[in-house]
Specification:
The complex is a heterodimer of chains A (183) and B (246).
Chain A (H helix, E strand, L loop, with lengths): L5 H8 L5 E2 H8 L3 H14 L2 E5 L7 E5 L3 H10 L3 H23 L1 H12 L5 H8 L5 H20 L1 H15 L13
Antiparallel strand pairs in A: 1-3, 2-3
Helix pairs in contact in A: 2-3, 5-6, 5-8, 5-9, 6-8, 8-9
Chain B lengths: L13 E2 L6 H4 L4 E2 L3 E6 L5 H14 L5 E5 L4 H10 L5 H5 L3 E5 L1 H4 L11 H15 L3 E5 L1 H5 L5 H18 L2 E7 L18 E10 L2 E11 L8 E7 L2 E4 L6
Parallel strand pairs in B: 3-7, 3-8, 4-5, 4-6, 6-7
Antiparallel strand pairs in B: 1-2, 8-9, 9-10, 10-11
Classes of the chains: A mainly alpha (183), B alpha/beta (246).
């Protein structure tokens, strides 16, 4: 999606039936290999259906699996690790500032310790956490951990207020990464 | 007459306030685990007395403290304390003193800007008291909480439940409230009935100058002085004079 051709290819496929990589390449004036690589990646990500072209085996034909709007939703589900890590950092930044404001440095430190195992460099620890596993799952787990750890320190009601505010702050401009819209 | 030993004033453990001149009036301190009300008009020294009660608790008597600011900001309370030589930072760092600015979440954020209520404070304190093993709690002040309730009946019910919670968890608490200019002793006229003690601060006009006074109007299990005493705010803080106001 980040490449200059990704979105153009998806737009081209909208309203078309089964389409070959060569047709995409011709329409967008790009190399067939480039089109083919993009189509294969989109198929792997679940955006496109693929079938073997009857007349020209082993060539594949592609079509959009769902309307474009649903593709955007799917893209949100597959969180990019860097974006997710940035959002998580902004979220925690906001949460720690709010917790410190409400309860002072000790509670804020306890929160970091509870969430990230007592490291001083919590940003680094956070990046490490987003390094390996699925970013979506990591992000959801971090938010839930924050909610629970915060509740232990400042009570569930205050924690809910603080976490909700931090989610609004941290995910501003990245709302598609939120597990669900805050109530 | 049968006297229950646990109710006899000399048998009730005391929590010293550390305020110069005050403990002398109340047999060495307020009853341990009691709910104490401190009322006074603006400028009478409520916050100063409360911060000293909290600070001395942590620094002199080794009792962890939660100071809950609802109307004052954290900076404002810190400024008051710093002005009288109370350095709270090391105590905060060691976990002996937690200064809570719950007003910060009330000042808040869109739909969340609703005032904090007693249940929320209770929920907060339950976690906070357990986490630092607090023995003293200050609520500064109850007036900010009242905004949450539509009528006096609801406020009374919730405040009653809250004071019961404070006794149940065994902390010695100091709750601040305003005395309105109208001459009423407390903002809502109910606070003193829900507390174990009632200390009233006043500002009196004496020949064109305002004079601060303190009166212990009520204190359970305590043979307390009932006189009105002049108060001086010195470089070291709140000082209650031994002599009485004529």
């Amino acid at each position: 999606m980040a490449s200059e051709h990704g979105l153009a290819i998806l737009r081209l496929l909208r309203g078309r039936g089964w389409t070959l990589a060569s047709h995409v390449a011709e329409s967008l004036r790009i190399h067939t290999t480039t089109a083919s690589k993009h189509l294969a990646a989109f198929h792997e990500a679940g955006f496109l259906d693929r079938q073997t072209h009857a007349a020209r085996r082993p060539t594949f034909a592609y079509r959009l699996r769902t309307p474009l709007i649903r593709i955007e939703f799917d893209l949100a589900g597959a969180a990019d690790p860097n974006q997710a890590a940035e959002a998580a950092e902004a979220f925690l930044d906001s949460l720690l500032a709010a917790v410190q404001r409400v309860g002072g440095p000790r509670i804020s430190e306890d929160l970091v310790r509870g969430l990230l195992g007592g490291t001083d460099d919590w940003r680094r620890a956070l990046r490490v956490r987003f390094g390996g596993t699925d970013a979506r799952t990591t992000l959801d787990a971090l938010i839930e951990d924050s909610r629970q750890t915060c509740a232990r320190l400042v009570g569930a009601t205050t924690a809910e207020r603080l976490v909700r505010h931090a989610l609004e702050d941290g995910f501003e401009g990245r709302r598609s990464l939120l597990p669900e819209a805050p109530a | 007459m049968i006297v229950r030993p646990e109710l006899e004033s000399s048998h009730v453990p005391r929590t010293a306030t550390g305020i110069e001149g005050l403990d002398r009036l109340i047999q060495g301190g307020v009853p341990r685990g009691s709910v104490n009300l401190l009322a006074g008009p603006a400028g009478s020294g409520k916050t100063l007395l409360a911060t000293q009660f909290a600070f001395y608790g942590a620094s002199r008597f080794d009792e962890a403290v939660v100071y809950l600011a609802l109307e004052e900001t954290r900076e404002s309370v810190e400024r008051v304390m710093a002005g009288f030589g109370m350095d709270v930072a090391p105590l905060e760092k060691s976990g002996k003193f937690v200064l809570v600015d719950l007003g910060a979440i009330r000042a808040g954020h869109g739909a969340d800007a609703s005032p904090v209520g007693f249940r929320e404070i209770e929920d907060f304190l339950r976690s906070c008291i357990a986490s630092i093993q607090a023995r003293r709690v200050v609520i500064d002040s109850v007036c900010g909480v009242s905004l949450r309730y539509r009528n006096l009946w609801d406020l009374r019910e919730e405040m009653f439940a809250f004071t019961r919670f404070l006794r149940d968890v065994g902390v010695t608490s100091l709750i601040l409230t305003e005395s309105p200019e109208s001459g009423r002793l407390t903002r809502f006229g109910i606070e003193q009935f829900l507390s174990d003690s009632f200390i009233h601060l006043a500002l009196e006009d004496v020949k064109g100058e305002l004079r601060r006074t303190l009166t212990v109007r009520k204190m359970r299990f305590t043979k307390h002085d009932t006189g009105k005493h002049p108060v001086h705010i010195t470089r070291d803080g709140f000082v209650v004079s031994e002599e009485r106001v004529a």
